[in-house]
Amino acid sequence: MSAVVDPIETEQHTVVPPVPESIDETGIAPAVFEQLILKYLYFRGELVGREIARLLGFQFSLIDEILENFKRQHFVAVKKSLGMGNISGVFILTESGRNLAREFLENNQYAGPAPVPLYQYSEVVRLQKLRDNWLSPELLVKAFKHLVVEPDILAQIGPAVNASKSFLIYGQPGNGKTALAEALFRVETEPIYLPYALECQGNIIQIFDPIYHQRIEDEEGELSALRVNLPHDGRWFKCKRPFIITGGELTMEMLDLSYNKVSKVYDAPFQLKANNGIYLIDDFGRSKASPAEILNRWIVPMERHIDYLSFQAGGKMTVPFEAFLIFSTNLRPDNLGDEAFLRRIQYKMFLRSPKAPEFIQIFRRFAESRELDCPDGLVESFVQRHYIAGDKRFRRCHPRDVITHAIDIINFERRSPALNQEILDRAFHSCFVENVDVND
Q: What residues are paired with 259 via a beta bridge?
């Protein structure tokens, strides 16, 4: 099947997969839909014709003939009718239909929306790439308004994000590297469309993951006697650009297709689920997969924007690689690899520790977010006693940690929601260890 239906681009530059008007336009062999219909009926018992079309993601007109053939072959029967035609018929499986459904389930147990062919997916991903110069300083500032971030830091982040080029953030632990990367998810962009599943070489690859994909519900299509006027191809879902984080648990196997031996369906790797979005590799250098293994795996994808994934039987599929890669680490860059190795990551930024004015602002902002009264001069006095006089380094996570302990004290002792010197001192000492000989 090689029919090409051009995606529609709206005035807001959102690329919309068009509703296929024929089986040929779906790019998938009719046998795939036949198998899915029998699986739906096998698992659900009975379904109205229009419900079957909705489950597939199509107009009913695309499957009317398939249902008619099933009736002639005695694979399905109409239990009752709620109106005119197959669209209103309540379908059930016959005994031969159940036997055929079991055969199809031996092949694979996928029973979700109809899959999208790889070539259609690749085209939509290419069109959904962020346009050149899409990010302005104003948009970036707006996305980070919930954080205290100095202009020099935003000035380093902006060009990398605007160019969607690989980016390494390094610095001491507790300084907000992950929070900084997560804030990029708040940058305003147009929604995108992703398929529930792909079909390639007879294999089904599941893309949709409710953990990472925030669906945006469309308005219901208009219902007529023979069809529902769908807003887009129902095999795709509308969502925010994905943001995916992996940390120390990352292994090389997670960067390839994962085959479920029971369902006989593949699950997409993280970078495929992150296409047209952001993929953050947190704790880079501390995961089970070494930095060299990860970057060597992605040399070609980062340069050519394509990736190669392997099927269990030995075949390969070529998929688009359009995720914005961010690496975050608290290791020294020279501990990750040599200069030639680090050149593969195009942008690097050292996230310095905050200075006293930034730290105080972060502290006050967090106290305010927790609806705590914070008298004037209290934070400045706290900083002078515990940081400046004690030569303790500022970390962006400290205000959250200290205030969280202060809230615990307030709640336990049934106090009013207000900070004072005594509470902050106690909270500080319960947060940090002292360098003492525990054997004394």
A: 266
Q: What is the pTM of this model?
A: 0.87
> What are residue 169's DSSP bridge partners?
328, 349
State whether the Cα torsion 49-50-55-60 is positive or negative.
positive
The answer to whether 255 touches 293, Cβ cutoff 8 Å, is: no
C-alpha span between 31 and 115 (Å, rounded): 12
SS3 assignment, position 246: strand
Which region holds residue 269: left if phi is over 0, alpha if psi is between -120 and 50, else beta?
beta
The class (CATH top level) of 356-431 is: mainly alpha
Task: Report d(CA 59, CA 62) in Å as an integer.
Answer: 6
Q: In whole angstroms, give the CA distance from residue 168 to residue 376.
A: 38
Q: pLDDT tens across 103-115, in order?
A: 999 999 999 999 9
Q: Looking at residue 13, what is its pLDDT?
A: 58
Bridge partner residues of 260 (DSSP): 265
Structure tokens at 93: 């499986």
The CA distance from 130 to 244, in Å, is 17
- Of all helices (H) and strands (E), which one includes residue 388? none
Q: Which of 324, 226, 316, 344 is nearest to 276 (CA)?
A: 324
The CATH number of 8-112, from 1.10.10.10, 3.40.190.10, 1.20.1640.10, 1.10.3720.10, is 1.10.10.10
The CATH homologous superfamily for domain 162-189+241-350 is: P-loop containing nucleotide triphosphate hydrolases (3.40.50.300)
How long is the chain?
A: 440
Q: What stretches of 42-166 adopt beta strand conformation (E)?
A: 46-48, 76-81, 89-93, 116-117
| Count of alpha carbons within 13 angstroms of residue 407, beta-carbon side | 13
pLDDT at 68: 95
DSSP string of 338-379, one letter each residue: -HHHHTTS-EEEE-PPPPHHHHHHHHHHHHHHTT-B--TTHH
Tell me how many helices (H) and strands (E) the chain has: 18, 21
* CA gap 305, 98 in Å, rounded: 44
Give the Cα separation of 372 and 364 in Å (integer).
Answer: 9
pLDDT digits (tens, 9 = 90+) for 231-277: 899 999 999 999 999 998 999 999 999 999 999 999 999 999 999 99
Q: What does the pLDDT look like over 116-135, one tens digit per residue? A: 999 999 999 999 988 878 89
